[in-house]
Amino acid sequence: MKFKIKLTYLVILATCAAFQAYCQQVPELIPKDSMKDFKKKAPVIVNGDKVEYIQDKNIIVASGNIRVNYDDVVLTCEKITVHTDTKLGICEGQVKIVQGSKMFTGEHIEYNFEQKTGRILKGEVSAAPFFGYAGDIEKESDELVELRDGYATTCDHDKPHYRIVAKEIQFYLNDKIVARHVYLYLGDVPVMYVPYYVQPIMDYKTKITVMPGYMDEWGYYALGSYRYYMSEEMKGYVRLDYRHKKGLGTGVDNNINLKKLGEGLFRYYYTQENNALTMAPTGDVRDRYRMQYKHSLDLTPDTKAMLEINKTSDRDFVKDYFFRELDDGWSPDNYLSVVNSKENYNMQLLVRKQLDKFVTVTERLPEAKLEVYDQRLWETNFYYYNELSFSNLRNVYDEATILDDEESVRANTYNKLSYVTKTFGFLYTTPYIATRQTYYSKNMWGDENNFRQIYEYGLNLSTKFYKMWDVKTAFCDINNLRHVVTPSVNFFHRHQPTIASENLIRFDEIDGYNKANSINLSLENKLQTKRRSGESLQSVDLLRFIISTDYYFRLKKQSLVSKGDGEFGPVYYDLELKPLDYIFIKSTITQNIKKNRLSNCIEAANTDLIYDAGDKFSFGLGHRYESTENYKASQFTSELNYKFDKDWGTRIYQRFDPAQKKWEEQEYTIYKDFHCWVGEFTVSVKEETFGFWMIFRLKAFPEVPLGLRNTYRRPSPGTSL
Q: How far apart are CA 718 and CA 720, in angstroms?
C-alpha cells in the first residue's frame, strides 16, 4: 500500500511538472490574469514520515515530522488530516503555521489552506513586535485574526512582564491591533483600564508615557501623555502634566489626514497657573496657553500649499513650558504659502500675518514670486535667468517698542544674461550682465511712487585638476587615492543704485542693496578613495577642505581700474575629515585677517569630533567659539554613550565655559534594560538650576513622545513633539 501511495504521489508530481512545461511552451492557453486562480486550485503537498492517501474519501492522513507548503504558507506538526477537495487541514501536536513574518502555534489547529482561515485552541500568534495568546484564536481571513479571552504583549517571555488583556482582541496582521474593555497588567497585577485601544503594528511609538522629575522652575513634576489612535486619519496625543510650582497643564496634539484634502497637525496646550490645584504658587492666577496648526496639501503633483498658525498667550510661555524648542531655534510664524515647482521655474504665493503683538513681523499681504531658472537660448551658449515679484509689505513691530509700523507696495524684477564657455580646454568661463528694477509705493520719508534701478555684471572662472596614486593599504581601508583640486575666481560689480538703501524701508535683502565690488576666491581640495560596498567598490571622500575669501574694492569713476583702497574680507575655512566610517571630524573657522594678533583674528570657530562604534560605545567632542568687539564666548561640549553589558548603560553630556571656568550644563543618565522595558534616570544641572527625571518605555516602541534635544537627540523634560 505504501508503494502505491508513493507511486501515485510521483505520478501527480510528474503530471504537474509536464503541465507546467506545456504552459511555458504555449503561454497563451493560460492568461496571466487567471494564474492566481490556477494557483489556488493547486494540490496541497504533504511531506512526512508516513503519508497515506485515501482516494474514496479525498483525504490525506500523515504523521511524523509533517511539513506542508502551500502558496506562502508553511505548516509543521506531528499529525495531520487534509481534505483535498476543501483544502481543510486538521493538525495536532506542536502545530506551527508560518505565513511571511507571521506565526501561529498551538496543539490543535483547523486550517483552510486555500482561504487561509482557521481556528486554534489554546494557541499563540506572533506579528512582530506583538505576541498574543488566547484560549480560542480564529483566523477569519488572510489579514484578520481574533483572540478571545486572551492577551497581547511585546514581551516574548512565557510569563510576560506586561500584557494587554481583553475579552476580544482583533489582530489586523499588517495594520493594527484593536481591543475593547482593556486591562493593562504588570505581571499579574491590573494597573489600568482603557475602554478602547488601537495600536498600529508598524508604529513604533509608545502608548502611555509618564515622566516624573524635578526642576527648580517647575518644582516636582509629572508629565504624562496618552497616544490615541482612532484611525490613520485621526491620531495623536492627549497630555496631562502637573508641576507643583505651576499647576495642572493639559493639551492635545492631533494629527489629521484628510487624504485628498491634505494632512494637518493641531496642537493646543493650556494651564491656569497658581490656581487652587497648585501646591506652591509663585504668583497671581493667570490663564496661559498656546495654539498651533500646520497643514499641507498637494493641489497638483507640482503644486503644494502649506498653512501655519501660531497663537500664544504671552511672550514667555514657550520659554517657561517648552524651552527646548527655543534651543532648537523655534520662532512663531503665521503664513499661507502656495508653491508651484517645475523643472524650469518656481512660482510662489505667500501671505504672512502678525497674530502675537509681542513679535516683530514683516507682513506680506500678499507676495507673489516667479523665478525662472537659467534657460538656454536656442542652440547658443547664452543663458537667461529671471526673478519677478510683487509684494504688499508691512513691518509690524513688537508692541513693547516705540517704532511705528511701516508699509509699502513693492514690485521687483531681476534679469540676468550669462554666457557659458570653456577656454584653453580646461577653464570654465561665465561672464554675465544683470539688471534690477524695483518700484516702491512709498519710501522711508513718505515720498510716493519711487523707482530704483541697479546694474550688475561679473565673471566666474573655475577649473578642476586631479591626480591618481596607486596606493592600497589596510590602514584607513584605502584602495587607490585621488586628489581633486577645484579653484574658482568670481568677479562681481554692482553699480550705485539710483536710490540709496538708506532712503528705503528695509523689509528684506532686496531693499539693502548698495554699490559693491568684490572678487571671491575659493579653493577646494578633495582626497578620495574607494571602499567595498557589497560586491563593488564605491568612491568615498576621506577629506574635503575649502578655503575662501572676498576682496572688496572701489573703482574709479567711469573706469574698471581700482582706486587702490581695496581690502580682504574674512577668510572662511571648512574642513570635513572621515578617515574611517566610524570617525568623523568637521571644523569651520572664520578669520578676520585685518587684525594682527592671532588671538583676536578668529571671529568664529566650530569643531566636532564624533567616534561611533555602534551600540556599545560612542563619543562626541565639540568646541564653539565666537568673538566680537563686545562679546566673546568659548564652550566645550562632550557626550559619551557606553553600555556596560547587555542590560546596563550610561550617557553623559557636558558643556563647559573655560573663560568663566564653570559648567554651563551637565546631564548624567543611567539606563537599564528590563527585557521588554527600558528605564532611564537623568540628573541635570544647567546654569545653576537643578533637575532630574525618569523615563520608562517599551523596547518595541523606542520613540519617546516627549521633547528631544536637537544636539545628540537626548531625552529631556517638556511635552513638545
A: 6
* Domain presence at residue 498: no
Decide: 196 and 691 in contact? Cβ < 8 Å. Answer: no
CB atoms within 10 A of CB 363: 21
CA distance 386 to 24: 59
Distance, in Å, from the CA atom of 191 to the CA atom of 188, rounded to the nearest integer, reads: 10
Q: Which residues fall within 8 angstroms of residue 178, CB to CB, at 6 or more apart?
A: 169, 170, 172, 197, 198
SS3 track for 578-601 = EEECCEEEEEEEEECCCCCCHHHH
Tens digit of each residue's pLDDT (9 = 90 or more) over 145-167: 888 888 888 777 777 877 888 88
Model confidence at 643: pLDDT above 80 = yes
User: Has residue 132 been placed in a domain?
Assistant: yes
Q: CA 124 to CA 146: how far, in whole Å? A: 11
> Does residue 526 lie within any of the structural domains?
no
C-alpha cell at 227: 497616544
Q: Which three cell numbers stand for residue 212?
A: 516624573
pLDDT digits (tens, 9 = 90+) for 79-128: 999 888 888 889 988 888 888 778 888 888 888 888 888 888 888 888 77
CA distance 507 to 703: 41
Alpha helices in 91-143 (DSSP H): none
Q: Which residues contact 366 (CB under 8 A, 6 or more apart)?
A: 349, 350, 351, 391, 392
Is it the case that residue 13 has pLDDT exceeding 50? no
Domain count, the chain: 1
Q: Residues for the chain: how many in total?
A: 721
Share of the chain above pLDDT 90, in %: 43
Q: Which pLDDT band, with edges at 50, 70 and 90, does 10 fall under? A: very low
Model confidence at 199, pLDDT cuts 50, 70, 90, reads: confident
Structure-block grid coordinates of residue 514? 548698495
pLDDT value at 458 more than 50? yes
| SS3 state of residue 202 | coil
For 57-79, the pLDDT digits (tens) are: 888 899 998 988 887 788 899 99
Counting Cβ atoms within 10 Å, is residue 209 exposed (0-12), middle (13-18) or buried (19+)? Answer: buried
What whole-number distance in Å separates Cα of residue 415 and Cα of residue 392? 21
- Through-space distance between the first and last CA atoms of the chain, rounded to whole angstroms: 70
Beta-sheet pairing, 465-473 with 478-494: antiparallel
Q: How far apart are CA 44 and CA 32, in angstroms?
A: 22
Q: Give residue 140's domain range.
A: 116-202
| Selected residue with higher pLDDT from 254 and 686 | 254
What pLDDT does residue 411 have? 98
Tell me the sheet residues that pair with 633: 626
Q: Is residue 130 one of the residues assigned to a domain?
A: yes
d(CA 647, CA 676): 11
β-partners of residue 91 are 80, 109
Using the predicted structure, report yes or no on whether residue 285 has a pLDDT greater than 90.
yes
Q: Environment class of residue 75 by beta-carbon count within 10 Å: exposed (0-12), middle (13-18) or buried (19+)?
A: buried
Global pTM? 0.70
Q: In whole angstroms, what is the distance from residue 586 CA to residue 578 CA?
A: 9
- CB atoms closer than 10 angstroms to residue 202: 9
